Amino acid sequence: xxxxxxxxxxxxxxxxxxxxxxxxxxxxxxxxxxxxxxxxxxxxxxxxxxxxxxxxxxxxxxxxxxxxxxxxxxxxxxxxxxxxxxxxxxxxxxxxxxxxxxxxxxxxxxxxxxxxxxxxxxxxxxxxxxxxxxxxxxxxxxxxxxxxxxxxxxxxxxxxxxxxxxxxxxxxxxxxxxxxxxxxxxxxxxxxxxxxxxxxxxxxxxxxxxxxxxxxxxxxxxxxxxxxxxxxxxxxxxxxxxxxxxxxxxxxxxxxxxxxxxxxxxxxxxxxxxxxxxxxxxxxxxxxxxxxxxxxxxxxxxxxxxxxxxxxxxxxxxxxxxxxxxxxxxxxxxxxxxxxxxxxxxxxxxxxxxxxxxxxxxxxxxxxxxxxxxxxxxxxxxxxxxxxxxxxxxxxxxxxxxxxxxxxxxxxxxxxxxxxxxxxxxxxxxxxxxxxxxxxxxxxxxxxxxxxxxxxxxxxxxxxxxxxxxxxxxxxxxxxxxxxxxxxxxxxxxxxxxxxxxxxxxxxxxxxxxxxxxxxxxxxxxxxxxxxxxxxxxxxxxxxxxxxxxxxxxxxxxxxxxxxxxxxxxxxxxxxxxxxxxxxx
Amino acid sequence: xxxxxxxxxxxxxxxxxxxxxxxxxxxxxxxxxxxxxxxxxxxxxxxxxxxxxxxxxxxxxxxxxxxxxxxxxxxxxxxxxxxxxxxxxxxxxxxxxxxxxxxxxxxxxxxxxxxxxxxxxxxxxxxxxxxxxxxxxxxxxxxxxxxxxxxxxxxxxxxxxxxxxxxxxxxxxxxxxxxxxxxxxxxxxxxxxxxxxxxxxxxxxxxxxxxxxxxxxxxxxxxxxxxxxxxxxxxxxxxxxxxxxxxxxxxxxxxxxxxxxxxxxxxxxxxxxxxxxxxxxxxxxxxxxxxxxxxxxxxxxxxxxxxxxxxxxxxxxxxxxxxxxxxxxxxxxxxxxxxxxxxxxxxxxxxxxxxxxxxxxxxxxxxxxxxxxxxxxxxxxxxxxxxxxxxxxxxxxxxxxxxxxxxxxxxxxxxxxxxxxxxxxxxxxxxxxxxxxxxxx
Lengths: 585, 441
Known about the structure:
Chain A has six helices and 42 strands. By secondary structure, chain A is mainly beta.
């Protein structure tokens, strides 16, 4: 046999699986502008005394979206679909792009909901150019041609699409013309300016080399979804933005091979693009399902190298791989460094990787109290937000099973397809009591947690601009939920938008914001694409507790430069423009 | 202070947990008569959908238990099968019964502890402590699993006590040293790792995880290059597997059902351990000659042993039963390529690609077949599709370079050879083509 043939034979490692083991452009016209909030306090008096931190406003919001997908153990159906919170029409109100996953008849099309002045939403899908029926997975918003309008990227089973925002509620698909080509099963996506040239580059995390003809059963002989270990890993992909001229049609070049990403395949479900090692160059973290995570460190020359193992992010506290899915990157202990939370299966513990020193992490899930849970869920979408504005970022995540061996929870929420109801689980909320010590308050959260669904996407944003972060929850084969933050006794807050005036006044994705207030440092990253398949409100919210004024805000811009901005009183939105602050040496 | 010295407080002041741990034995002793006075009913689980072999085993063990309900052993053995068949709550009840009936065996509290660990960790730890005490020096697995459970919950002082117990029996206990290293890293004492982990580096079960811990330790000492090198070494080692646990292996071995056997055969084939894999495959075929998975495994074994005609036959049998099996199609194509039946292989690969258009390996194999058929342009297109689906596929880049070379398209050949060598500078075929291209100039 020829050596060539031998190579092909050796390369094909058949996995013969027979078992299942088991997302505002605010009109700041001056160098920096503050926008008074329409309402600084938002607690509904009727809810005082309630333990609920959220009120379900889906019914009166005008959003009527039920996720559609198959019921035949086709693995891409199990992934769920994403949600984008973005101001698509620059009216200073968050709009919604909701992804569907049912391309076969009866087709379900992706939907665009634009927010009205009264806070309700109208379905603006028809004619938007987004109302396609594809096997949608995740979606993100970002201005790829620096014209000030947020564009959209949609990942799919078997593709990745780019939609250029035309500014009038219409989007034009420009995938091919832009040079985006990805035939693989794409899941998470994120914008990153990896070469710091002011143009947003694109990373797409591909998931598995899935075999749609593979049938899997559990030990009881029941057909169920295949486990990810059954299939081979795939390379995530990266495209460099070469558009060059503001407002021009977007153009990208594939740098997957040249960057080194092709050398380290994985099974990405979560993605965070941020500076993980303190060198002011953005890196890429991939949460890989059932594999060691990847931390692709930016070598500043267009290449990346995986350093997850030595930096403590590859494995969990016990040195084991886990089913890594949703991701949160936030400073839970106020040390000015981002910490990474990754959701896992019900049978595993989640991971909270504290950044002890720049670039080095330790899984402290036990010390953080996150092992003490009222129930154990298979976590997907996860967000951090200081819901009660006490100064400490809390943690919420949505759950939903992936295999029948673990019994689903009841009661199953109304509107969830009964076939999928078997996989339903209740969402969870953990309150940060300070110092990254958490307490599970889910049992007292009736609106958020009392009914089970197959939770997947979870996005955070201030939908009604009241200074309190709200939630949008997407679940498989169930209705989308909008939860308004009505946490009682909320503290003061500040909302920050960091914009790039030289690049179309787009959001400064990748910027790090440090707010000094009341003797405490709060750190956050402008990166809407975290959690799971979603894109959050790009504005950052900081809870201030009883502190009524902030001392200063420092911004580390994506190009590596830093500026400070003067303090302000609390309970307003700050719009910080790159180049208008005091440079930090 | 008296309070501080109270055994109810551990280092983290967790009163309830400490109380349960210190007085759990008493609680158990108090509850034991109750459990003895009302013995649990023998579970009767539905076996209709279970794999026949596992169902048979369940029935046998249940019969044995019905015949001797006052003996610990049948309760425990039945619990093990229930455990293997994932009837967890029933298994827990039976393990509890076995443990109470035979207070001298570490097996039942150990297995019970492992099952309870997820949902009832405090009760699980009581059982695991009991198992560790009963096992003594005869079996280190119960104490090691207790250590791991404590480390996972960051209960380091308690874990260290148990580690010391293991080290007192065997000062160079690799798995104990590994867990001690994990504690030290979490405590910020990375400089101690190099010494602690020495015994781990030569042990097959602990070498890879120890290298990874050392890598993290070096990174914390600011030794980035050393950390990267250790990380590379770890990555080059076989994937880790757990420290042997004879009691747990008893449970795992009960998974002699079709799925368990097939998984095992597949793993053995991946390691080319044909003499061990083939009897398992034969057993699967004996149970069900029409089992498509077994036929696929049989074909795979033949193919890996270069018995290409036999392999083709098996794969065709498999495809007769599952015509849309992508795995079957790709395997059949390999059997045909093995026989240099390029045209036949092409047809099969094209069918596979209709089922999975992003099947990089099928594109690459189709490129090979097209090349052998003399269809240079078609081969190039297939290789290009392979690279499109799988960036970084040096083999396809090299194959494209070779094809271009054959077609006399030297500039393109150079481009592809360079691409292959950028990804893998040591790629033999790409280097050879590079050399030939240099000579042509």
